[in-house]
From TrEMBL:
This is Type II secretion system protein. Keywords: Membrane, Transmembrane, Transmembrane helix. Gene3D superfamilies: Glycoprotein, Type 4 Pilin (3.30.700.10). It comes from Sapientia aquatica. InterPro entries: N_methyl_site, Pilin-like. SUPFAM superfamilies: Pili subunits. Pfam families: N_methyl. The chain crosses the membrane at residues 21-43.
Length: 336
């Protein structure tokens, strides 16, 4: 099309089409940017959801392992040793020697009657299992795994002092660690999303952690574990942390058995406030050779608990030397 001067120009409809096409391209650019933002947000939300799901699965499986350990204790009178073998098959190492290395491995799922996936955390790695397994404990104490010749035989004497005791410390990534307990019997550990220091389902060891607190948890010879909230902050005290630690105290394992009256025999009984016999003397000595109530020093006749000679103050005096039924209902968590 030409004008009066003979110059060509685009028809109005063509100009409109070009303008419309340019507007559409601008719109498309905006749409692409918006889609990128939405997809990025969606990916982050999906990742967060998957992580939350993995943590929830991990916590649920740790609770089920605890139940399985109590069931094993109920049946066998001991806790199992971990599977520490080079080729993992889910059976406990035997014999479980009195070494720290023999007390640290994966949960012995076959020994506990669990499927293999029951002892894998939400990221597919094996849980680490640590248990007090000393076989040369102090006089009067017993360990939680050995069932061999005396004195390395489990019995309820060892209600207060696992050998070796496992220490649990708590941190927040800001202040120094504080000790929660020095009396844990067992630990069920997930290495979290990074899996540092844990075993894969192929039996290989994941790479070691570069983070100080996670290194403690992943050390096979450790008798100390650290509990902290998740953080990926590089500057956190002790480093980034995503381990999930569940620890078991003596009362966590034994109180359910006492409550259901499964435990019926022991060699030492700790009454809540006093022996349950005539005269009811208090259960602790006041000094060397002196029961709390000298007038009733001969025996707790109704309960049949002869006194032992007091070695020092605060020594229990209501003891027996032979296996005796536990008076169900008298033991309390404080006695464990």
């Amino acid at each position: 099309m030409t004008n009066r001067t003979g110059k060509h120009f685009a028809p109005i409809t063509q100009i409109a089409a070009l303008q419309q096409r340019g507007f559409t391209l601008a719109e498309m650019a905006i749409v692409v940017v918006l889609m990128g933002i939405v997809l990025t947000m969606g990916l982050r939300m999906t990742t967060a959801s998957l992580n939350n799901s993995a943590y929830a699965e991990t916590a649920s499986k740790q609770a089920q392992i605890k139940i399985a350990l109590i069931a094993y204790l109920r049946t066998n009178g001991v806790l199992p040793c971990p599977d520490t073998k080079a080729v993992l098959n889910g059976t406990q190492v035997s014999p479980c020697t009195a070494t720290a290395a023999a007390s640290y491995g994966i949960v012995p799922y076959a020994t506990l009657g669990l499927p293999r996936d029951a002892v894998q955390d939400g990221w597919g790695n094996f849980f680490t299992y640590k248990v007090a397994n000393g076989v040369a404990p102090p006089v009067g104490m017993r360990n939680w795994t050995a069932k061999v010749a005396p004195p390395a035989v489990f019995d309820i004497v060892q209600l207060t002092s696992p050998v070796p005791a496992i220490t649990i410390q708590q941190g927040d990534g800001v202040t120094a660690l504080t000790t929660i307990t020095t009396n844990a019997v067992a630990v069920i550990l997930s290495g979290g999303k990074n899996g540092y220091g844990t075993k894969t389902v192929q039996g290989t060891l994941n790479s070691p952690s570069p983070n100080a607190d996670e290194i403690v948890n992943a050390t096979a010879t450790t008798n100390r574990f650290i509990v902290r909230p998740y953080t990926d902050r590089v500057g956190a005290l002790g480093g980034p942390f995503d381990d999930r630690v569940v620890y078991l105290l003596p009362q966590d394992l034994l109180q359910p058995l006492i409550t259901e009256q499964t435990i019926t025999v022991c060699k030492m009984y700790c009454p809540a406030n006093a022996c349950t016999g005539a005269g009811a003397p208090y259960p602790y000595c006041t000094g060397v050779g002196t029961p709390a109530n000298a007038a009733n020093a001969s025996s707790c006749t109704a309960a049949g608990k002869p006194y032992a000679t007091c070695a020092s103050a605060a020594t229990p005096i209501c003891t027996v030397t032979a296996a005796t039924p536990i008076p169900i209902g008298n033991p309390t968590p404080a006695c464990l």
